[in-house]
């Protein structure tokens, strides 16, 4: 018989990334294997008793062996176009926008680079959505934290390069936000 009561599990580790236009909720917990999952979102301080969730995600996470290198970038892409009438009045064709995140991961050991990251890149590739949290420990809910989290896909991956320094590796990665 299916039972929602046993085994009960509470992650206790909810991270909330919230901005004026969206929220991302992340739970980090050790591997659990169950036949069914049920997630209950309850906010007793919410007078409307209503919570809107755009995407539900249940999957694994990988935490890097080392932080990404300096020189990472976030680029906001606006697909809108502006044209001008003969008198100079601007007209905007409003289209969607998204952000790109580009970063370099370096000084990886052979076991992490070849044993963890390379298989992950092969498995996920450009085919599957991911959540990229540049600083997962920062969860104060400001627009800064929101801009450091991306829900999207791997857009480009450079080769895994041996830096010839004690068998360490580096790779350049690019991610595109889902629109």
Architecture overview:
With 179 residues, the chain is mainly β. Helices cover 11% and strands 35% of the residues. It has two helices and ten strands, in the order ββββββαβαβββ. It has helices at 110-124, 143-147; strands at residues 14-18, 23-27, 73-78, 81-84, 90-93, 97-109, 130-133, 149-157, 161-162, 168-177. Strands 3, 6, 7, 8, 9 and 10 form a six-stranded antiparallel sheet that branches. It has a two-stranded antiparallel ribbon with strand order 1-2. β1 and β2 (23-27) form a beta hairpin. The longest helix has 15 residues, at 110-124. It is flat. The termini are far apart.
Strand percentage: 25-35%
Give average pLDDT, whole number. Answer: 77
Radius of gyration, in Å, reads: 20 Å
The SSE order reads EEEEEEHEHEEE
Q: Any idea what the shape is?
A: flat
**What's the end-to-end separation, in Å?**
41 Å
* Approximate helicity band: 10-25%
Q: What structural class do helix, strand and pairing data support?
A: mainly beta
Low-confidence stretches: none
The number of helical elements comes to 2
| Count of extended strands | 10
Main beta-sheet strand count, sense and barrel state: 6 strands, antiparallel
């Amino acid at each position: 018989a299916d039972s929602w009561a046993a085994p009960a599990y509470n992650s206790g580790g909810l991270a909330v990334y919230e901005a004026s236009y969206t929220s991302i909720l992340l739970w980090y917990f050790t591997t659990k294997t169950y036949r069914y999952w049920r997630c209950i979102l309850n906010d007793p301080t919410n007078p409307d008793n209503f919570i809107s969730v755009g995407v539900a995600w249940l999957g694994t996470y990988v935490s890097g062996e080392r932080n990404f290198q300096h020189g990472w970038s976030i680029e906001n892409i606006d697909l809108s176009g502006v044209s001008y009438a003969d008198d100079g009045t601007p007209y905007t064709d409003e289209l969607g926008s998204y952000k790109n995140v580009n970063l370099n991961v370096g000084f990886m050991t052979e076991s992490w680079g070849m044993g963890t990251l390379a298989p992950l890149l092969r498995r996920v590739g450009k085919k599957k959505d991911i959540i990229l949290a540049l600083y997962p420990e920062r969860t104060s809910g400001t627009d800064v934290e929101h801009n450091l989290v991306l829900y999207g896909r791997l857009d480009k991956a450079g080769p895994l390069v041996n830096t010839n320094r004690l068998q360490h590796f580096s790779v350049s990665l690019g991610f595109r936000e889902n629109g």
